[in-house]
Amino acid sequence: MFEKRKFPRLGESWDVDYSTIRTTEFKKSPIDSLTVNISGGGVCFEAKEEIPKGTMLAVELRSTEFQSSIMALAKTIWCKEKDIGKYDVGVEFWWTGWKDNGAQESILDYVNKHVNEKGK
Fold first, then answer.
1. Distance (Å) of CA 4 to CA 9, 79, 88
2. Cβ(92)–Cβ(74) under 8 Å?
3. Which residues make beta-bridge pairs with 42?
4. Which of 15, 72, 91, 103 is most exposed, with minimal Cβ within 10 Å?
5. Max Cα distance, the chain (Å)
């Protein structure tokens, strides 16, 4: 089967907090969730609410593989109901970082390394 994705996916469960970026909602506490998979270009995570396509999100990713959490600005590409009141949400990274621009490259390197290891 032909793979259309630009970045390989790694099925790992990382902690993720997300908030919609709208003035009225951004001030609310972030919502806790878990990733379904992650790539150098985006992430799929679980949500208890439908998040419309095109919604901008502030995302914080945490993994024991990284010393600090990774902050990201992401755009919702798709949202699919997988069960009543449970959704998988796919977002693409628009910006990622700590206090430098190497965060997205670090994610990409990490995913590529582990995908390659699993393929051997």
1. 12, 18, 19
2. yes
3. 92
4. 15
5. 48
Q: What is the pLDDT of residue 1?
A: 44
- Rounded Cα distance, 86 and 46, in Å: 7
Domain ranges in the chain are: 15-119
Q: Give Cβ neighbours of residue 104 (< 8 Å, ≥ 6 apart).
A: 40, 93, 96, 97
CATH number of 15-119: 2.40.10.220
Give residue for tokens 């502030």. 58
Question: DSSP letters of the chain?
Answer: -----SS--B----EEEEEE-SHHHHTSPPEEEEEEEE-SSEEEEEESS---TT-EEEEEEE-TTSSS-EEEEEEEEEEEEEETTEEEEEEEEEEEESSSS-HHHHHHHHHHHHHHHHH-
Please, are residues 44 and 36 in contact by the beta-carbon 8 Å criterion?
Answer: yes
Q: Which residues pair with 33 in a beta bridge?
A: 16
Q: Which distant-in-sequence residues (6+ apart) come within 8 Å of 54 by Cβ?
A: 75, 76
